[in-house]
C-alpha cells in the first residue's frame, strides 16, 4: 500500500468514479461523516441504493440534516465511526469521504474495526482521503495542518489490512477540482465551518488570504487536489 502517487495527474469527479466502481444497486449503504449530505443526496438521487444510513458527528450539521425531508431512502443519525449504530453484518457498502482523518487518532483503529463489524461478508468500504500535497493544501495547512492525522488515518487502514479484518481490493489515485470565485468564498467554505473551530489571528488571516490569492487564474481560483481511495473488502 502507498499513501500517495505523485505521478498520477488524472482529473476526475469522485462520485462518477464511485458509481462506476461500486455495486450500489439495491445496496444497504452506510456513509460515515456525511457533512452537509451533498454526496448523500447524489447517492439517493441515483435510485441505486435501497437504503442509506448517513452519520454525522457535528451536532450543528446533524440538526440541519434532520430538516431534510425529500430523501425517503436516507436515515440520518448522530454518531461517529468509532461507535456505529448498526447491527453486525448489516451493511453492503461503507463510504467515508475525506472523514477518516477527522476521527480522533486514539479511536481510528476502533473505527476500522467497527466498519469490519457492520459490513456483510464480501462487503466493500470506500475510504477516500486527501493526499497531503497540492496548492490548496498549501493554503489550508497555514491554519490547519493535517499532515500527521492523515498519516495516522493511512496507518489505521494499513493496520486493518495487516490484521486481516479487511482486505485491500485496490487503491485509486486521482485529482479532484476545487474552484472559488474569490477569497470570501474560500473563507465561507473552508474556514467558517461548524465541525472545526478555526480561530485565525488577524495576521494569520492576512497570510492565508495572500497565499490563496497567489494562485489567482484568469477565471478565479481553481485547484487540483490529489486524492487516494483505499477500497477494502470484508473477507467472506
Topology:
Layout: H1 14-21, E1 28-32, H2 38-45, E2 51-56, H3 59-65, E3 74-78, E4 91-97, H4 108-118, E5 119-130, H5 135-140, H6 147-163, E6 167-180, H7 183-191, H8 202-213, E7 221-233
Parallel strand pairs: 1-2, 1-4, 2-3, 4-5
Antiparallel strand pairs: 5-7, 6-7
Describe the structure.
By secondary structure, this protein is of the alpha/beta class. It contains 8 helices and 7 strands. A 7-stranded mixed beta sheet has the order 3-2-1-4-5-7-6, with helices on both faces. β1, α2 (38-45) and β2 (51-56) form a beta-alpha-beta unit. α4 (108-118) crosses α6 (147-163).
What kind of oligomer do you see? single chain
Question: Which regions are unreliable across 5 or more consecutive residues at pLDDT < 50?
Answer: none
Note the main sheet: 7 strands, mixed
The helicity comes to 25-40%
Shape: globular
- Report, as a whole number of angstroms, the end-to-end distance: 21 Å
SS summary, helix count:
8
Amino acid at each position: 500500500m502507498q499513501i500517495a502517487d505523485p505521478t498520477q495527474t488524472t482529473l476526475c469527479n469522485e462520485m462518477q468514479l464511485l458509481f462506476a466502481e461500486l455495486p450500489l444497486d439495491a445496496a444497504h449503504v452506510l456513509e460515515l461523516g456525511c457533512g452537509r449530505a451533498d454526496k448523500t443526496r447524489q447517492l439517493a438521487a441515483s435510485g441505486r441504493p435501497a437504503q442509506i444510513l448517513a452519520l454525522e458527528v457535528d451536532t450543528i450539521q446533524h440538526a440541519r440534516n434532520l430538516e431534510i425531508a425529500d430523501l425517503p431512502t436516507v436515515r440520518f443519525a448522530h454518531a461517529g465511526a468509532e461507535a456505529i449504530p448498526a447491527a453486525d453484518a448489516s451493511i453492503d457498502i461503507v463510504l467515508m469521504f475525506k472523514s477518516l482523518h477527522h476521527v480522533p487518532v486514539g479511536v481510528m483503529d476502533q473505527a476500522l474495526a467497527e466498519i469490519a463489524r457492520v459490513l456483510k461478508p464480501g462487503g466493500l468500504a470506500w475510504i477516500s482521503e486527501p493526499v497531503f500535497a497540492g496548492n490548496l493544501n498549501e493554503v489550508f495547512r497555514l491554519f490547519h495542518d493535517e499532515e500527521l492525522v492523515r498519516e495516522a488515518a493511512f496507518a489505521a487502514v494499513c493496520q486493518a489490512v495487516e490484521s486481516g479484518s479487511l482486505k485491500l481490493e485496490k487503491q485509486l489515485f486521482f485529482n479532484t477540482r476545487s474552484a472559488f470565485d474569490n477569497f470570501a468564498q474560500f473563507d465561507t467554505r473552508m474556514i467558517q465551518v461548524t465541525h472545526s473551530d478555526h480561530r485565525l489571528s488577524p495576521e494569520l488571516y492576512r497570510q492565508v488570504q495572500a497565499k490563496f490569492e497567489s494562485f489567482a487564474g484568469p477565471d478565479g481560483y481553481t485547484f487540483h487536489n490529489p486524492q487516494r481511495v483505499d477500497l477494502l473488502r470484508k473477507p467472506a
